[in-house]
Write a structure and sequence with these properties.
Helix content is 39%, strand content 20%. It is built from 13 helices and ten strands. The chain has helices spanning 9-12, 31-38, 75-90, 99-108, 119-126, 131-142, 149-164, 169-183, 198-204, 219-228, 236-241, 273-287, 324-338, and strands at 16-26, 44-51, 61-73, 188-192, 211-216, 242-246, 261-265, 291-297, 341-347, 358-364. Helix 3 packs across helix 5, helix 4 runs parallel beside helix 6 (131-142) and helix 5 runs antiparallel to helix 6. It is elongated, with a radius of gyration of 25 Å. The chain binds S-adenosyl-L-homocysteine (SAH). Residues 153, 193-195, 198, 216-218, 221, 248-250, 265-267, 270-271 line the site of S-adenosyl-L-homocysteine.
């Protein structure tokens, strides 16, 4: 399963014609599901359904199949596919499904599950009765095209912070966001893409914010955020004000509905075009907070960073950095489509030519 062989590594690394026979498996949704699961992975599938009872043909078929899979694959791939997909056929775990199952699924599904056209079905059936866990696993799979997105993100974020340090930009950004939230009289606030919790910490310091939710797709960032705000040593009353949630901004999520405000600080530039469109609907149509604050770099300002070569982004994972015109056009489009009003504020010292280093859009219903 791990793909390691003491004596014959070259064989372990080689695809070969292999077949597996599952003498009896239960699959209530039927043969269609068996094919949906295995055919995209390159197997030729045969499935033979068994009658409920051979002595009573009139009772019809039962849920059991004999399945054979034939393919030209590495042994490790075949074993990992079976490990994940046999329980998916059955979809009844006879033991408690907890967080460890998510880890197991992502480990065994490494390298193939993220690209499987039916990954949603697979995840939901692998983690039955646990919608929260399934959501978490899916969010992580979406990011799984990177080997270790967390680690890469961390390194790049560090570079960005160092570049912006002389103008203490992040402190100014947090200050500006908090000021807007205060003036909007927001009490219950979502920080979407909260990262390592810089804003959460500022929000916690002000009693007017009665409920603060930090959400991020990176589990590691949430762990760091939890340490930064010293969640484990917080008095119970404080603790009740703060919730950390693992989730993705690209999916509609009922947990995000009904808040006074959402902040999306330096996040949109990490989303590529199709994800950005999904994010717009998940936030402005589904979660629909009264106020939304979005910040993003102002690309025009980049010429002022001496260490940043011309034409490069501030952070290697940024998919884009917009001029003020581009950001305002995008924001106005959203405002119009979803019925918000939008205004724009500069963050950081404004240059007469290129504007401020960060741009902020404040949307209100
Ligand atoms: N708001 C924080 C972090 C900005 S970095 C701050 O200002 O310090 C961007 C953050 O967005 C990262 O933590 C990254 O994990 C998160 N992110 C990227 N794509 C996301 C998605 N689809 N859903 C939720 N968070 C996402």
């Amino acid at each position: 399963m791990s793909g390691r062989s003491k004596g014959r590594q070259e064989l372990a690394d080689q695809a070969m014609p292999l077949s597996a026979k599952l003498t009896v498996v239960s699959c209530r949704p039927g043969e269609g599901l068996i094919r949906e699961l295995f055919e995209p992975l390159g197997y030729v599938v045969t499935a033979e359904r068994h009658p409920l009872d051979e002595k009573f043909q009139e009772w019809g078929d039962g849920p059991y199949y004999t399945v054979t899979l034939a393919g030209n694959v590495r042994l490790r791939d075949l074993l990992n596919h079976l490990y994940v997909l046999v329980p998916v056929l059955d979809a009844e775990k006879h033991y408690w499904v907890g967080n460890a199952e998510v880890e197991k699924l992502l480990r065994k599904g490494g390298g193939w599950l993220a690209a499987h056209p039916h990954k949603e079905t697979i995840v939901k059936r692998y983690l039955p009765w646990q919608r929260g866990l399934a959501r978490e696993a899916l969010a992580r799979l979406v990011e799984a095209d990177n080997l270790d997105p967390d680690a890469k993100e961390e390194a790049h974020a560090q570079e960005e912070t160092e570049m912006e340090e002389p103008i203490r930009l992040w402190q100014q950004r947090m200050g500006a966001v908090v000021a807007v939230l205060r003036s909007e009289r927001s009490k219950r606030v979502l920080d979407l893409g909260c990262g390592e919790g810089k804003l959460l910490k500022s929000l916690l310091e002000e009693k007017t914010f009665t409920e603060i939710v930090g959400m991020d797709v990176s589990y590691r960032s949430l762990e760091i955020a939890s340490q930064r705000v010293k969640l484990d040593r917080m008095p119970t009353k404080q603790k009740e004000r703060l919730k950390l949630m693992h989730g993705s901004l690209m999916y509609r999520d009922k947990r995000l509905a009904g808040y006074d405000a959402a902040t999306v600080v330096e996040v949109i530039e990490h989303l590529d075009a199709p994800r950005l469109a999904a994010f717009e609907r998940a936030l402005f149509e589904s979660a629909r907070p009264k106020t939304v604050i979005v910040t993003t770099p102002n690309a025009e300002y980049n010429v002022k960073f001496e260490t940043l070569p011309a034409g490069q982004f501030r952070h290697k994972d940024h998919r884009f950095e917009w001029t003020r015109g581009q950001f305002q056009q995008w924001s106005s489009g959203i405002a119009e489509r979803f019925g918000y009003a939008v205004r724009f504020l500069p963050v950081g010292e404004e240059d007469p030519q290129v504007g401020a280093p960060t741009q902020m859009g404040v949307f209100s219903l």
